[in-house]
Write a structure and sequence with these properties.
This protein is an alpha+beta fold. It folds into 3 domains: 3-127, no CATH class; 133-199, Helix Hairpins (Orthogonal Bundle); 206-350, Heat Shock Protein 90 (2-Layer Sandwich), CATH 3.30.565.10. 60% of the residues lie in helices and 13% in strands. The protein has 9 helices and 7 strands; from the N terminus they run αααααβααββαββαββ. The strands form 2 sheets. The chain has a 5-stranded mixed beta sheet, with helices on one face. A two-stranded antiparallel sheet has the order 1-3. β4 (269-277) and β5 (280-287) form a beta hairpin. The protein is elongated and about 115 Å long.
């Protein structure tokens, strides 16, 4: 914690302590008043019996307890009010009301620590609300996209089952079934990949290997996709080595290559470059596709987010989230830059030796 933050939180603690000290002071005043009254009554009842004196003392003590309890009940909302407000807001959030926002008033609202608490809580609530919206959209979209190929497969399988088809029609229907099956497989793979990397906290299979060769292999693996659009490639010829999880980083390059192909016009050029920047490697994928609006350049890395609200392009908003999570697991990052001419995704990875190497 920074010294300035420690100072701000200490000031809030002192504020609450001061309120409780006021209560102790009021309690002391009440007790003192009761004692003085008791002494005065002792003087008045000097000739009274012991029983009468004890009765009077008992009434006074009971009255002071009742008065103190009432006073505490009436005034306790002052220090406990903000605490109750926080608890109520948290309960509402836990119940699924993601529109809940925390807001203090008066002097407390001007306290730096209270402002920090308000800002953190409201940011958390906003992120939960946004994630819930994306999750709902994802379920709706994914259900639709998952159902479409299933219906196609079932429909063309029925046609094949009926028979009386020419060999050309049979091949065409089988090609459609194969394509839709691969589409289903890709969607399921993306969901499983996201689940796997989300639950992973450390890398256990780190090795040092030829990064350039891996990227070239990934480009060749997706040749059926980019050859249909006559995409041309300019891939970094120099050899670079990286320390990381070969399997996880392959998912990164496959997702980014697939993304570049998906959004490139026919006959376009996709450039892959690798550069050493200090003690890191920057891998850049540049395609000449539609511009990504500035407000979407960070959001596209969130789970379930799709910049194309019409869903005219394939995808379920998971691929880039997987890319970012894998980059983070490697201690790196991923960013997107886009203008009217080109879009570039840059993955930055630490250039460090594998475990056991100097």
């Amino acid at each position: 914690m920074k010294p300035e933050e420690r100072k701000q939180r200490l000031s809030l603690t002192l504020l609450f302590s001061a309120v409780f000290l006021v209560f102790f002071f009021l309690t002391g005043v009440i007790i003192t008043a009761v004692i003085l009254l008791l002494v005065h009554l002792d003087v008045l009842v000097l000739g009274s019996s012991v029983l009468q004196t004890d009765l009077i003392v008992g009434v006074i003590v009971l009255s002071s307890v009742v008065l103190g309890t009432l006073l505490t009940g009436l005034l306790s909302h002052i220090p406990l009010g903000p605490v109750n407000k926080i608890i109520n807001a948290m309960n509402a959030l836990a119940a699924g009301d993601f529109h809940t926002r925390l807001q203090f008033s008066g002097r407390l609202a001007r306290n730096p620590t209270a402002r920090e608490l308000t800002r953190s809580f409201n940011t958390m609530a906003s992120e939960l609300e946004h994630t819930e919206m994306l999750r709902s959209d994802f379920i709706n979209n994914f259900s639709h996209e998952f159902k479409t190929p299933i219906v196609s497969i079932a429909g063309f399988a029925k046609l094949l089952k009926r028979g009386n088809l020419t060999p050309e029609e049979q091949r065409e229907y089988l090609d459609i079934i194969e394509r839709e099956s691969l589409r289903l497989s890709a969607m399921a793979t993306n969901v499983l990949s996201m689940t796997k990397v989300e639950n992973q906290t450390i890398l256990t299979d780190v090795t040092r290997y030829d990064l350039s060769e891996q990227i070239r292999s990934c480009v060749l693996l997706l040749e059926p996709k980019w050859s249909k659009k006559r995409i041309e490639w300019d891939v970094e010829p120099e050899e670079f080595f990286v320390s990381g999880s070969r399997a996880l980083l392959e998912e990164v390059w496959l997702n980014l290559i697939d993304n570049a192909v998906k959004f490139s016009p026919e006959g376009a050029l996709v450039t892959v470059s690798i550069a050493r920047t200090g003690r890191a490697l920057a891998v850049r994928f540049t395609n000449r596709g539609p511009q990504i609006p500035a407000e979407d350049r960070d959001a596209i890395f969130r789970k379930f987010y799709q910049a194309d609200g019409s869903h005219a392009t394939e995808g379920n908003g998971i691929g880039l989230a997987v890319v970012r999570r894998i980059a983070q697991l490697h201690g790196g990052s991923v960013t997107a830059e886009s203008d009217g001419e080109a879009t570039t995704f840059t993955v930055t990875l630490p250039d460090r030796p594998a475990a056991g190497q100097g």
